[in-house]
Amino acid sequence: MLTIDNIMETVNMIQNENLDIRTITMGISLIDCADSDIDASCRKLREKILRRADKLVSTGEDLELKYGIPIVNKRISVTPISLLAGVSGGDPVKYARVLDEVAAIVGVDFIGGFSALVHRGFSAGDRELIAAIPQALAETNIVCSSVNIGSTKAGINMDAVRLMGQTIVKAAELTKDRNCIADAKLVVFCNAVEDNPFMAGAFHGIGNADVAVSTGVSGPGVVRSVLAAMPDDAPLDVVAEEIKKTAFKITRVGQLIGNEAAKLLNAEFGIVDLSLAPTPAIGDSVAHIIEEIGIEKCGGCGTTAALALLNDAVKKGGLMASSSVGGLSGAFIPVSEDEGMISAARDGSLSIEKLEAMTAVCSVGLDMIVLPGDTTADVISALIADEAAIGMVNNKTTAVRVIPAIGKSEGEDLDFGGLLGSGPVMPIRKESPAKMIARGGRIPAPIHSLRN
């Protein structure tokens, strides 16, 4: 039952603690747009997205006014484009251009799904799409791309890992005059999920409904505020319980908006992704939550344990609130998008090695990390392999979104502006992994993958 206290608590979360619906994402299946003629396939794709998403933005705006809850982004995810490219042949960049055009027409912030799933090997269209990623992201403004190179069941496709290191370097070079922005729209996954509403890694998996609406909710500021009000000597199990209760309240907001948006848009309701996704805004930081738990500076000893507590409590609270929790739900640690992470990276408290350890217990992985511009493709491939190994062995989603800042060195800054924020160029180990990467092949799945 709603009380005045409940209502005022929610109002305070929105006005003072940065609670928001980070995104309403409409997932659209493009399977019925496949055609042996790429131009015909593009026409079908364009028509379907225009027809199904024409009211997505206006619906989000109406719900903002109705409930007084900010809905920061309206986005679209589509079936992995490699599937269409495998049928049509031709240059996959054509698909990217059409996606960019139609997304601009309907007014969304991003469109994701210029993607390929190659964890067990390459099928028709996969290699062509990966080769097209740098040009596609350089030519477009709001198209996002992802490639899944490994899974717990399949192992790690090291040939794909090698290709993705090269792809990231080429994408940076093609957009070096725009702060290497292409790589901010590219994610390399292990154990990618097919119902993720967050960019840049969103795609609409083939197991989903034809059209589905999902929400992504974020509230790091709310969680930090709750912890700041607790006594410093509160036991950690009590801290976890308060985070869980807070996550419950945040998830209910996402469930409400998602259900109503799906009805208004004549679509299936997908999932609520409860992810503490930070922004560069002051007070909206996962790093500051870790510091509120009791670590002097994010990156210090104890950071991984604090993040594990946070991530688990968030998931437990979300599952109490909704039977439709999905996506990546938990805590994100994108360096350039988190004011506290930026500060910790700048003063040396936070290293790539510590971030890698943290990814074993958080929701995604090495996210929005700026690397020196002379970082080689082999080193980036090895970094992807390391992160994929954490995901594969621990049966969790991990990802890499790194930006080699062409022309910049360790200690300099790269500024994207807006939600993508800015970040310092972080040092990375440069010992050559070239021999390992050149071997190719596949890292076999771990023994515990045999669960049937």
What order do the helices and strands come in, and which of them pair?
Blueprint: H1 4-16, E1 20-28, H2 38-53, H3 56-67, E2 71-78, H4 81-88, H5 93-106, E3 110-117, H6 126-139, E4 143-151, E5 155-157, H7 158-174, E6 186-190, E7 211-218, H8 220-228, H9 236-264, E8 268-276, H10 286-293, H11 303-321, E9 330-331, H12 339-346, H13 352-358, E10 366-372, H14 377-394, E11 398-405, E12 413-415, E13 422-424, H15 434-439, E14 442-443
Parallel strand pairs: 1-2, 2-3, 3-4, 4-6, 7-8, 8-9, 10-11
Antiparallel strand pairs: 1-7, 4-5, 5-14, 6-11, 12-13
Helix pairs in contact: 2-5, 3-9, 5-6, 6-7, 7-14, 8-9, 8-10, 9-11, 10-11
Q: Give the biggest beta sheet.
A: 12 strands, mixed
Kindly state the number of beta strands: 14
- Tally of alpha and pi helices: 15
Helix content: 40-55%
**Protein structure class:** alpha/beta
Distance between the termini: 44 Å
Enter the CATH topology name of the largest domain.
Anaerobic Ribonucleotide-triphosphate Reductase Large Chain
CATH class of the largest domain: Alpha Beta
Question: How would you describe this structure to a colleague?
Answer:
The protein has 452 residues and is α/β, with parallel strands linked by helices. It folds into 2 domains: 4-190, Anaerobic Ribonucleotide-triphosphate Reductase Large Chain (Alpha-Beta Barrel); 218-242 and 272-447, Anaerobic Ribonucleotide-triphosphate Reductase Large Chain. The protein has 15 helices and 14 strands. The strands form 2 sheets. Strands 1, 2, 3, 4, 5, 6, 7, 8, 9, 10, 11 and 14 form a 12-stranded mixed sheet that branches. Strand 10 (366-372), helix 14 (377-394) and strand 11 (398-405) form a beta-alpha-beta unit. The relative contact order is 0.13. The model has no long low-confidence stretch (mean pLDDT 89).
